Amino acid sequence: MHDILAYSRGNPITVEDVVTYLKVTGAFGNAVYKLMEMHTIDWEIQSLNVQITEEALQAHLTAKRRVAGLTGAADLNNYCHRNGILWEQWMQVAESELRRNALKQRVIGSPAIQAYFEHNRERLKKVCVARIVCHTLAEAEQIRERLLAGESDFATLARQTSLEHNSRIAGGHLGCMGRGVLPPNIEQDIFFAEAGALCGPYAQNGFWAIYMVEEVLHSTLTDSSMYQIADKLFADWLRERVLKAQREERMQGEHYV
Q: Could you list the residue range(s) of the whole structural domain that residue 155 is in?
């Protein structure tokens, strides 16, 4: 009976049911990897002698509890009871986030962030675009000719003719986006175009689309972008350490066979 977690319309939901569901959906493998990351972080923290003060730990735990709405000891106890975990287990996972951040700050410095930014400056660029969607190629080409002839502006024609409801209301405006959002053939044209350029028509999802590049946002190194780059560099670094640990453990296993 201890394996039964809950009942739904008289049917028991067991630990095995949950594990099977997690495996089928792919969440199980991700959880296993996250646990491997936690163990690797603990190893690297000790190896590099990264220190975390008690004050920093308590501040982090307090912030985690506040965000989760667990302001009092009773709230935390009830939360742990509902989820079938111990208070120490909750604290271990919460503390792992602090340890991860501390390790990231040690191994990913400003020079690495700057070097990555300079190497990927073009790839990090964003463009603000608008789109008009038409039923046929002929309609799209006609609208493009009207735009090139200056008969009307893009926003007006988008509101009058575009089939795409949400962007039509905004004059065709889709927003500002980085690479990997649009299909490769469209992306290649748009990211090499200047502000004000018309691109297309393109066959897209059974319709025809014309794009206008509203603005080109050249990448700059801000606090936000530095944080994002540091996250990526650390994730790559940590993945290599996890794989290295797996290889070493596999070799040790083979050695003792």
A: 126-217
Are 141 and 201 a contacting pair, CB within 8 Å?
yes
pLDDT in tens, 22-42: 999 989 999 999 999 999 999
On whether both 178 and 210 belong to a single domain, the answer is yes
Number of neighbours of residue 159 by Cβ within 10 angstroms: 15
The answer, yes or no, to whether the previous bond of 12 is cis (omega within 30 of 0) is no
Burial class (CB in 10 A: 0-12, 13-18, 19+), 98: middle
pLDDT tens for 94-121 read: 899 999 999 999 999 999 999 999 999 8
Asked if residue 99 and residue 40 are part of one domain, the reply reads: yes
Q: Do 97 and 147 reside in the same domain of the chain?
A: no
Task: Give CA torsion, residues 124, 129, 131, 137, to 10 deg.
Answer: -60
| pTM for the model | 0.70
97 and 159 fall within a common domain: no
Whole-number pLDDT of residue 212: 97
Model confidence over 145-168: pLDDT tens digits? 999 999 999 999 999 999 999 899
Q: Are residues 99 and 161 in the same domain?
A: no
